[in-house]
Amino acid sequence: MAIFRENFNRPHRSAHTNRFMFVSHLEGALSGTTLSAGEQHTTHEGRPIIVRYDLDRVAKAVSRPDLHARADTMWKLRELLPVPTGAEVSLGEHATPILRCNRLGARFGLKNLWVKDESSLPTGSFKSRGQAIAISMAKSFGTKRVAIPTAGNAGGAMAAYAARAGLEAWVMMPEDTPVVNQLEAWLAGANVILVKGLIDDCGKLVAAGATHMDWFDMSTLKEPYRIEGKKTMGLELAEQFNWKLPDVIVYPTGGGTGLIGMWKAFAELAEIGWIAPDRFPRMVAVQSEGCAPIVRAFDQGKRFCERFENAETIARGLRVPYALGDFMILDAIAESQGCAVAVQESRIQEWMKTATAAEGISFCPESAACIGAVEMLADDGWIQRDDHVVLFNCSSARKYADMIDLDLPKIDPADSLDWDQLRSAFASKH
Ligand SMILES: Cc1ncc(COP(=O)(O)O)c(C=O)c1O
Fold first, then answer.
1. Which fold has domain 127-217?
2. DSSP assignment of 330-350, as one string?
């Protein structure tokens, strides 16, 4: 690990000489307009911008066996990442485990259920991936101050990577964001502000302050590079499955960067000939019925969402009433012949508990919603017994400790204890 950390944080010797090694250009995701990779971008005509690579050159420069000799980290397939060599801001983003879950699978009648567990990344969630790349790029463009609206985990991650990079960070989060997210951002030195409102209200404040405060807006999909970080979930998954992708990916969808990023990863891997172009997974976007703008648009056959009013869910990462990349999420679902499903809000805590107890993986509420989705889709036959299914656990229950109902029995050692009574109190659990 020590060697790994040193490697990724060596001085900026060659930061600018090979900036464009494999990135060919940027592109407006909606309009297809070509944009230069040489300058820092936000959005194009109000919509996200994506990074394009010279994939012919990538295919010539690296092959699948080359990866064996490389460290098992998020940066492994660096030919498909935009960060110039030497400009990496890293906290040690190892590849995350892919865990077979036979006990959980059996409950839903599935033979091949896997969980990709992102909780062990440096900031305790998959947001490390996006922020590692976005902050590396921001720093390499000379940015000194960054700001972010967040549902929680992205703000904690941005604060940590900004601290690592020596940048000033501003984080705006809804006032009822989990305390751990507030704490981690504050501890990392960010200026943390609690906002009476939701993530899009925070987003408006970050946008409104940009000129006056001279900060760079790191909102989801308002800069091109967080997608590239999240893309590494797809790159990693493909390698872990020996370049044969699973049949179904079940992903908790808020702003959608992860789903969009993985879909982009698969397209790029197919283009360089590493995976079969006709065997992509069906992508399932999971939301809570308390905030389901993507599911509503999917059900109505639309490509763009309307704001979901009165959004509320314990799965704070899913409490995104409006996603700037709505059409990118819905396109990926459609192209993959996937679907979008909303699960019962009132059952999310139950799924957290039962899934964690079944496998020992600490499920965050967002991914507990995915457990509900798998149950629903297996029940109605959309997911079949032999399908290979991967569910993303994007964070862990630990981050939501203050939000979970917990009422444990107490014992006073001074009282005499009736062991039979104690056993029968817990009997239903076994
Ligand atoms: C734990 C968790 N799961 C899922 C999501 C949604 O992720 P995405 O923005 O990639 O849709 C978030 C976003 O905050 C999150 O924190």
1. Rossmann fold (3.40.50)
2. HHHHHHTT-EEEEE-GGGHHH
